[in-house]
Design brief:
This protein has 372 residues and is of the alpha/beta class. Helix content is 47%, strand content 18%.
Length: 372
């Protein structure tokens, strides 16, 4: 058997070389990404190493009679089935490898910056955002003459500095009326309970609840349960008059937390209904958009654009414990210019909520790159 190793830029290029030298009967034994070239460990290129083999003296297949084929046992059939699954898995892995390799080829960045770009895209950071971040990292590395030894720290520090302006500076609230809006199913009511409890326990504020989510009885009962546990007064507002009455009733409270109905944001009447009930911008009101990290990044951005027209810029992300990618945070902060207020990471009230700093967000985003 003739075995040979090939170094190529793409799988397609490797297959061309293999076919030219070994012929179409050659088989691929293994493939992996390798770093080649460079000087003093820097500026190495990512290539594809493929090991192929050709049996120069194959045994001609024996023709089976129809009788022999009919006599094949179930064990043989199972073996054939397993072999087919293995081939399909190999094809799937090769397809993924080719896709990854293509991404490297398309990158204009040198190592290790192309690796950072690849990682950010895998984290579902929008390609434009990822390229802007990596471009900043690379440019500053060249200007500061960052060594290979210090490169990891440089990458982390640069991303942290980029993130910092998009983080809400204070964990306290400036306005009296704190309103929460967002689509259905993001955990808005639980988030309100967490934020209210933290405000009471850590900032020693006197707080009250108002819910305008009268579309779902369960939502009203849920907030009432939290209000009872936390010993917080609550009012249910079915109409605008009810809402104004509740605001007047709680006028002497430090903060009034308002739960609104979670609806399909694509319904044009949704925003109109909310506008009829609450005031987005005033000297007394501030509004937070609650979004789930498990939702598609594009959907989250579409929702934000709708509410940003009303002046809403601050975001609370929920369900960070239910996802494995966090690129949505970067997309919202950099592409949309949103301000990140806090992150919910579980169902426990009041513990599972974090008021992150730039270091926390950077660690969350880059956890696999640096820590795995």
């Amino acid at each position: 058997m003739k075995v040979k190793k090939y170094i190529a830029t793409t799988m397609a290029e490797a297959l061309t070389q293999i076919k030219e030298e070994l012929g179409s009967d050659a088989v691929i034994l293994n493939s992996k990404k390798v770093k080649v070239g460079g000087m003093f460990g820097l500026f190495k290129q990512t290539k594809l190493e493929v090991i192929a083999a050709l049996d120069e003296h194959p045994i001609p297949p024996r023709k089976e009679s129809k009788v022999e084929i009919r006599k094949q046992t179930p064990a043989v059939e199972r073996a054939a089935s397993n072999s087919q699954r293995e081939v399909l898995q190999e094809i799937k892995e090769l397809r993924q490898l080719v896709t990854t390799q293509s991404r490297y080829v398309q990158s204009n960045f040198k190592p290790p910056f192309d690796d950072v770009l690849s990682y950010l895209i895998e984290e579902e950071v929008h390609p434009t955002v990822a390229e802007e971040i990596v471009s900043t990292i690379e440019t500053q590395a060249e200007q500061l003459h960052v060594s290979e030894k210090d490169m990891s720290s440089h990458i982390f520090d640069t991303i942290q500095k980029e993130v910092e302006p998009q983080i809400k500076e204070s964990t306290s609230f400036d306005k009296q009326v704190i309103q929460f809006v967002g689509p259905t199913g993001v955990g808005k009511t639980t988030t309100i309970a967490k934020v209210a409890a933290k405000t009471m326990l850590e900032h020693h504020k006197k707080v009250a609840f108002i819910t305008t989510d009268t579309y779902r009885i369960a939502a009203i009962e849920q907030l009432k349960t939290y209000a009872k546990i936390l010993d917080i007064p609550i009012e249910v507002a079915y109409t605008n008059d009810d809402y104004e009455y509740a605001l007047g009733k709680f006028a002497k409270y430090d903060h009034i937390f308002v739960d609104t109905a979670g609806r399909n944001y694509r319904e044009t009447s949704y925003l109109k209904d909310i506008n009829n009930m609450i005031t987005f911008q005033s000297s007394l009101h501030e509004t937070y958009l609650v979004l789930s990290l498990t939702a598609k990044s594009k959907d989250n951005m579409d929702i934000y654009r709708i509410f940003s027209e009303e002046g809403i810029e601050q975001i609370i992300f929920t369900k960070s414990d239910e996802t494995s990618t966090y690129g949505t945070i970067m997309n919202m902060c950099f592409k949309e210019g949103a301000t990140l207020a806090c992150i919910s990471n579980g169902q426990n009230v009041p513990d599972d909520i974090i008021y992150p700093d730039a270091e926390y967000v950077t660690k969350l985003l880059m956890r696999r790159y640096f820590y795995e």
